[in-house]
Amino acid sequence: MRIEAVPLDLHPLYEATLGGGGLSNGDWDIAQMTTDWIAEAQAAGALMNLRPMIEANPPEDFPDGWSTSMLGFQDFGDSIVGLPFHDGPECLIYRKDLFEDDGNRDRYFKRTGRELAVPATWDDFHQVARFLTDPKRNQYGTVVAGFPDGHNTVFDFALHVWTRGGELVDPATNRVIVDSPASHRGMRFYRELLQDTTAIHPDCRDFDSVKSGLAFARGEVAMMVNWFGFASMSEVVDESVVKGKVDLAPIPHDPDGSSASLNCYWLYTIGAGSMHASVAYDFIRFMVNRENDKRLTLNGGTGCRTSTWCDADVNGQVPYYHRLESLHEFARTLPRLANWSQLAAVIDDLVIQAMNSEKPVEQITALAQSRIDEIQGS
């Protein structure tokens, strides 16, 4: 069997698979797809139903080998349209050596009258980020994936709403809400942080989550809210200078809110137009077995199996890997909507305006809400 693998960035991947109909017309047999797009792909009939293949020849340990949080988004009842490939969720990733350093602790106490600690609130996060910024050492307090790709800015928006006691979806109507007191507070903070050159990496607006994670691994960032996989990556990739110096904590929150996490993951899918579905499924089944999930993890990916999360070799290299299971217990998901890509584009624009302009946040969110209401049909 010969595999021709084609790497694509997010927008070209979307256009090749969904925008241009490539999964439906047979251009692609297999696609790695984020859960953001699954509802749209399912509604468009772009993905093959894997349930009959799974029932006839299930992957190793299916379904018990995975957390239920890794199996729900792609399960539409009569159809299952993907198998987990690469995992989140988001958390606070930080340099524990900087927080444990006696010099840093003494200076912080003299400056603030408080002990240097991993921040639990957003205000503390901002203050500590300023303290740990030292441009002469190419070290910055934090980094944000501010590149407008329709994903990371949207994830940040959701987390800033949730950690301030707000909701992204009205539970009574199942409609997306972006104009709310929680979003106003979140975007005001986001703007202040992104515009504070004494706290944040100067290249944020050009960074996606991967570039942010690599900056952290190079020692340029003291702490960041990012995907768990970038913590584990910093323990295994050759270019990392922070191996053994990394730890995790809950994402900060408002004093009146609580921490939250976001679970978004990647799936192996088979195009509805594939002429090689049986071979494609055999390949996917092989790729998601125990051995390959572990191998993916030890090479910088984020394995999806509970066996990988608890594996002794994995935890020997990444000592906090077992904590993925507890992170998943409290992680939330974005709405599973067929028009999510359209809605996410509006939220992306909302966040970019909040970052780069001085318009009142309430004006930005109100305009975004009107656009979202139009998409949702009201």
Automatic annotation (TrEMBL):
The protein's location, in the record's own words, is:
Periplasm
**What family is it from?**
Belongs to the bacterial solute-binding protein 1 family.
Q: Which organism is it from?
A: Crateriforma conspicua
The name under which this protein is listed is Putative ABC transporter-binding protein
Taxonomically, the superkingdom here is Bacteria
List the PANTHER family hit by this protein, alphabetically.
ABC TRANSPORTER PERIPLASMIC-BINDING PROTEIN YCJN-RELATED, ARABINOSE-BINDING PROTEIN-RELATED
List the GO cellular component terms.
Answer: periplasmic space
Keyword annotations of the record? Signal, Transport
Q: Which residue stretches, if any, does this entry annotate as coiled coil?
A: none
Q: Does the keyword ATP-binding apply?
A: no
